[in-house]
């Protein structure tokens, strides 16, 4: 079973993603900020991550940089309601697989996660 790390400071988003991914056969780990996300990434060795950009303590860009320094081919999906603050092309230069805007289309997110493993 593939393990997905969800890192988002919005509990409702984490819960929605967790429920859908579990129904789809994935194991799910959750973190409410980048620092906790990095700790869980190192401890539990997930297979992919869904990361929000705007979070307290450590934002999604910082978290993604740390993750990809340690595992350059690790699949990361970015989701954010603040994409206007970031250049999507710059995010993709980090080797992010996909950048999705909030509000999220849960079916689209699920399909993007499945594509990571096909």
UniProtKB/TrEMBL annotation:
GO biological process: one example: phosphorelay signal transduction system
InterPro entries listed in its UniProt record: Bact_response_regulator, CheY-like_superfamily, Sig_transdc_resp-reg_receiver
PTM sites of type 4-aspartylphosphate: 52
Keywords carried by this UniProt record: Phosphoprotein
Pfam families found in the cross-reference section: Response_reg
SMART domains: REC (SM00448)
Residue span, Response regulatory domain: 3-117
Keyword Phosphoprotein in annotation: yes
Official protein name in the record: Response regulator
């Amino acid at each position: 079973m593939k393990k997905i790390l969800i890192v988002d400071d919005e509990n409702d988003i984490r819960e929605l993603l967790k429920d859908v991914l579990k129904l789809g056969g994935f194991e799910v780990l959750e973190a409410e900020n980048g620092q906790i996300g990095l700790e869980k990434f190192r401890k539990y060795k997930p297979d992919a991550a869904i990361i929000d950009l705007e979070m307290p303590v450590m934002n999604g860009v910082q978290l993604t940089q740390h993750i990809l320094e340690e595992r350059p081919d690790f699949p990361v999906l970015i989701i954010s309601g603040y994409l206007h603050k970031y250049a999507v092309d710059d995010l993709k230069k980090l080797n992010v697989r996909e950048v999705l805007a909030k509000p999220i289309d849960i079916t689209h997110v699920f399909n993007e996660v499945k594509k990571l493993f096909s």
